[in-house]
Amino acid sequence: MTERRPRIGVLVFPGSNDDGDAAWALSALGAEPLLLWHARAELPGVEAVVLPGGFSYGDYLRAGAIARFAPAMEAVADFARAGGLVLGICNGFQILCEAGLLPGALLPNASLSFVCRDVPLVVERADTPFTTRCEPGQTLVIPVKHGDGCYQRPPELPAGQVVLRYAPGANPNGSDGDIAGVTNADGNVLGLMPHPEHAVDTLLGSGDGGLILASFVDSAREHSYAHA
Amino acid sequence: MRATVLVRPKGGILDPQGQAVERSLRQLGFPVGDARVGRVIDLEVEAASTDEARAHVERMCERLLANPLIESYEIELEERSG
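ok -> C-alpha cells follow
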C-alpha cells in the first residue's frame, strides 16, 4: 500500500535559494511539496511548513529581520501556535528566531568567514517530530553553508529544546553551546543551520539529512491538525 | 525631524567584527582595547514634537531596527533647520 503524501508548504522569499532542493527532497521522501510565495497571506491546506535556506532580502539589517514581516509569516505564526509543524533551515531558522517563533538569535560566524562543508552533528533528542528516525546520541553528517550561524541562546533556554549539537571540536561558527538545532517550548517548531535537504542521497556524500526530513514527513502525515 | 539610531552589540555578546577591528588597529600600532562594531541608521521622521518622534523611533527599534536579545539601541533627535 502506498502511504499518503502529506502536503508540505515550502515558503519562497525574495532571495530564498534552497526552496527547490527542499521541495525535491520532500518529494523524494514521500511528501507533496507546495511552493508558496511569501506575499500570500494564507497557507492553503498544508500539513507542515518549511522555511528554506537562502538570503532573504539580502540579509540586510540582520539575517531574517525583514522576511519575518512577510504576509505569509503571520499565517506561519498562527499555524505554529495551533500546533502545526514548522521546520526552518538556515535562513529559515534565522527568520523564525527574528519572528520570535524560536528562542535566540543568529550572529555572524565567529570566524567572520562563510563556511561551506560537511559537519558532524550529535542528535540530542530523538523524540521530537523531526528526529523520530534518529537514535539519541547518533552522529549525522550534514553540510552547513552560512555566514551568520553563530547561535546565541537566551539565558533561560531549557536544555531539552536543543535537538542537535555540532560534534565536539566540529563547531563551524562559534555557536553558543555548540547548538546546531533548537525547538520552541512546545516542540513543534525546529530551526537548524545545517541543510538536511542537501544530504538525502549517499551518492552526493550523505543521506543523513534524509533521516530528519523523513521524520518530519512521517510526523506531518500523522498529525491530526491538518488543514489548520 | 532628523533621527539617528545607534545600534550596538550588547555587552557579553560575541562581536567578531569588533575583535577583528581591534586586532587590526593594534597591528597598526594603536593602543586600543574593547572595540565594538555596531550600526548607525539615519532617518527623517514626520512628527509634531520631539516626544512623538521619539515614540515612533522607539517603536521602530523594538519592531525592526534592533534585536533586543543581542543589541541595545540609542536614539538621537535633531530638529531640522531651515
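The longest helix of chain B spans residues 50-65.
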